[in-house]
Write a structure and sequence with these properties.
397 residues; alpha/beta; Rossmann fold; Rna Polymerase Sigma Factor, Chain: A; 3 domains; 43% helix; globular
Length: 397
């Protein structure tokens, strides 16, 4: 029997990879619903090819156009449209490929119904890890990681019991600035930051990889996915991005998962779990690797990582605030409003202003998220690159 998939984010990089996997295994998978943002030109051929029952887009106007193109198709829009895509009764698996906290509500509603959640959207667990995992446990829903690092950990953890785990080790490429002169960081441009050395991703994720905020978010995600405290989650730099992550066991054994830099592999793993299936995708040529390197994390170069550890230790609403402020900061950088070092500076300032509360519901998480966005937006003008760069020195504490 085919697995029926609700695909959140069909026009993004995860969506591209998911469509490729489905195309390789038409006998195994069927897409029954999908969502997109504003890229209708990319969405239309996907709808024509897969004929989903439900589709959601960003705006009412785009929804009207889609209904004209496909009479009889159920089309929604906005946040409720995403929930409709994720909760369609026919779906067995919800593949969450939307970037940002907007993916939280559809993921939460899906797990409440007991649907398997294949999660590429790390922000969902960062913002509301406690209520989402509680809902999954209550309904019996499986939450499977699609991030390559967490997929690697999930596979390596199958070798032992939770009591036998000493630590989880997340690997990170180090992004495009691993060896760049630290003194030149204020001169980093948007184009510089978008040149990731090993992965091809959307702009927001690529900037997060440059600052290593993505790794900070992954630390928090790993805490909830695997019920492991932050003190047992480490990060090492691995420029080749071939070892996707590792698990060290109490007996000294270290299990590493390796595969090509291709998101189709973790997507296939999540969609077929607990089985493994033969794949036509090109495998890893071990003899061509040459060498695998590992380096310690430089917290001065990547201050986002210790900031994320601190937010995780603080717990409650702090991770949600960290994520929301970062989204605003990255957008401001991509808009060329603030300099590169101001991304993490802005997040730190917002966290410093926040009074932490416990997050026991999605509403709690979204309230903290909204507060952080307002605070971050208010601080952006004080860090603008030009003509008021000097005001960054006068940023209020």
């Amino acid at each position: 029997m085919k697995k029926r998939i609700a695909l959140l984010g069909v026009t993004g990089s995860i969506g591209d990879s998911a469509l490729s996997v489905v195309a390789h295994f038409p006998e195994r998978f069927e897409i029954v619903s999908m969502s997109a943002g504003s890229n209708l030109e990319k969405l239309l051929p996907a709808v024509a090819a897969h004929r989903p029952k439900v589709v959601s887009v960003k705006t009412r106007e785009d929804a009207a156009r889609l209904r004209q193109e496909f009479p009889g198709l159920s089309v929604g829009f906005g946040p409720q449209g995403l929930v409709d895509v994720a909760t369609i009764p026919e779906a067995d698996v919800v593949l969450g490929g939307i970037v940002g906290s907007i993916g939280l509500a559809p993921a939460y509603e899906a797990v409440k119904l007991g649907k398997t959640l294949a999660l590429a959207n790390k922000e969902t667990l960062v913002v509301a890890g406690e209520p989402l995992m509680a809902a999954a446990h209550a309904s019996g829903a499986a939450v499977l990681p699609v991030d390559s690092e967490h997929c690697a950990l999930h596979q390596a953890l199958r070798a032992g019991t939770p009591q036998e785990v000493k630590r989880l080790v997340l690997t990170a490429s180090g992004g495009p600035f691993r060896t760049r002169d630290f003194g030149t960081f204020p001169a980093i441009t948007v184009d510089d930051a978008l040149q990731h050395p090993t992965w091809r991703m959307g702009p927001k994720i690529t900037i997060d990889s440059a600052t290593m905020m993505n790794k900070g978010l992954e630390i928090i995600e790993a805490r909830w996915l695997f019920d492991v405290p932050g003190a047992k989650i480490d990060v090492v730099l691995h420029p080749q991005s071939i070892v996707h992550s590792m698990v060290e066991y109490v007996d000294g054994s270290v299990l590493a998962q390796m595969s090509p830099n291709d998101m189709r592999f973790p997507i296939l793993y999540a969609l077929t779990y607990p089985d493994r299936v033969p794949t036509p995708l090109p495998g890893l040529d071990l003899t061509a690797l040459g060498k695998l390197e590992f380096f310690p994390l430089d917290e001065t170069r990547y201050p986002a990582v210790p900031l994320a550890y601190a937010a995780l230790e603080t717990a409650g609403s702090a991770p949600a605030v960290l994520n929301a402020a970062n989204e605003v900061a990255v957008e401001a950088f991509l808009d060329r409003r603030i300099p590169y070092p101001a991304i993490v500076e802005l997040v730190a300032r917002v966290l410093g202003r926040h009074s932490v509360v416990r997050v026991v519901s999605v509403a709690d998480a979204l309230e903290a998220d909204a507060w952080a966005r307002r605070e971050a937006a208010a601080l952006v003008p004080l860090l603008e690159t030009s003509p008021r760069a000097a005001t960054a020195r006068a940023l209020p504490a």
